[in-house]
Design a protein that fits this description.
The chain has about 120 residues and is an alpha/beta fold. The protein has helices at about 1-5, 10-25, 45-50, 50-65, 80-85, 100-105; strands at about 25-30, 35, 70-75, 95, 110-115. The chain has a 3-stranded parallel beta sheet, with no helix packed on it. A two-stranded antiparallel ribbon has the order 1-2.
């Protein structure tokens, strides 16, 4: 209704245009409106390619903050997967995660306990 009033269009026209934009992947329709398309809708592999330089930089800094003996919680996601790749194989720490990709990424870290 707000878009209809703002642009001087019928509500039917706005609904039709939102359906078309949703079908083209340009927005996500929700009850009562629309939301911007989220990168989270893309597959893990696709998201892994987005902003890879920034993810690598963030992961490198985060990895340097993890000290031996610490207990660290690592969430899921592509930046977290990159963080795991940046951890030294000799790290002795406990990592708590719900993410299969993080847990699998830590398989080569013999002195990391994964919970």
């Amino acid at each position: 209704k707000q878009l209809s009033e703002l642009f001087g269009l019928s509500e039917d026209t706005v609904r039709r245009d939102l359906r078309e934009l949703d079908a083209e992947g340009l927005l996500q329709r929700v009850h009562g409106g629309a939301l911007p398309v989220s990168s989270a809708i893309a597959s893990f592999a696709e998201r892994n390619q987005l902003e890879s330089g920034a993810k690598r930089a963030i992961a490198k800094v985060a990895a340097a903050l993890i000290a031996p003996g610490q207990v660290v919680i690592i969430d899921g996601g592509t930046t977290s997967a990159e963080l795991v790749r940046q951890l030294p194989l000799s790290l002795n720490a406990t990592i708590v995660t719900h993410s299969p990709s993080v847990a699998v990424g830590l398989a080569d870290h013999p002195t990391v306990e994964v919970i």
